[in-house]
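Hi W.,

Here's what went into the run:
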Amino acid sequence: MTKRFSENEIAAIYKAITERRDMRHFVSGPVDPAILERILQAAHQAPSVGFMQPWRFIRITDYCLRQKIHLLAEQERIETAKALGEREDEFMQLKVEGIMECGELIIVALMENRQQYVFGRRTMPDMDLASAACAIQNMWLASRAEGLGMGWVSLFAPKKLQQLLNMPKDAKAIAILCLGHVAEFYSKPMLEKEKWARREKLHDLIFENTWKEKPDC
Amino acid sequence: MTKRFSENEIAAIYKAITERRDMRHFVSGPVDPAILERILQAAHQAPSVGFMQPWRFIRITDYCLRQKIHLLAEQERIETAKALGEREDEFMQLKVEGIMECGELIIVALMENRQQYVFGRRTMPDMDLASAACAIQNMWLASRAEGLGMGWVSLFAPKKLQQLLNMPKDAKAIAILCLGHVAEFYSKPMLEKEKWARREKLHDLIFENTWKEKPDC
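Here's what came out:
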């Protein structure tokens, strides 16, 4: 393995990182199986705590099942809106998922028998979630490079999705991934464009040797 | 933004994903501040649930503090070895961190006041950890392209690290990141090379419409 990549390669990495978006708007059309394979292989190259490779992928190819998953997300969308209080109406205006439109729907779950793994997880058992999130970030970047959009939907009740997919009780769904063709990528994160939240300044988030959060203004 | 990247750019993305390693062996020398800035900017481009940008970075530049952090990891290494039972000796042979050798030591933590954020977290509050893990994966890939190694150490008691860094009680340290120069990148994940665990076959981890784990052989 060479060490430092070429300048063009480095630029490509930063381009993928910068232009990746959490997509909720898709256009119809299937995902090329060869591209899907590359994207899933990218996931499987992610780091994992103690090399446990905790990620499991459930492709949803049954249309009725896709509808049921959409319903779970819709139920949670309404519950979330209520929980948001004064921002309820604003939230309900946002498009938060593209489950029915995307070419490929994939559930990512954490493996069963997770409790057997202690390496790097004795004090922080949720490190397998962190590993699976790294795998999903790989998928996001690979998808962006391939010209496909991806969205991570976390608006669902995990227990209900677990039942729907006949998952063992110690496995846990963490993502409904919408993958597919898009008309265009958002120029900025959609929630920034829609003024749901503003981009923080990076240097407000970097401290030295001790915590020092800036006071809210 | 263009859609599909060029073939060379796509190849660069997959190269970074494939050649990224969780590094524990470093050689001395500081990290160029301009490169560190790019790597942290890459982190800040990660997706985050409800655009909450939960990541905070604490650069450790004080040598005594670095020693104290190393001690925390060493204490947890011994506790983990005990918890592993019959694999205790095998575990103690592994190099699990490069805290004292790496050029740059960065703690990644989740922000304070996390409970205020409901979007995408009502049923799964740990989604901010997932977002921060995506940020760390961006750092890993950017570092690899820049020719720097990075390791994510999760062998520590989060409460002790919280106290050491004067973190608010609802903020949470999730990673001790070792970043720096390396003599070479491992040809395979170190835990695979050392036969701690074997690489799973990707297609054993992909199901369709329902959970179907292969029985252990």
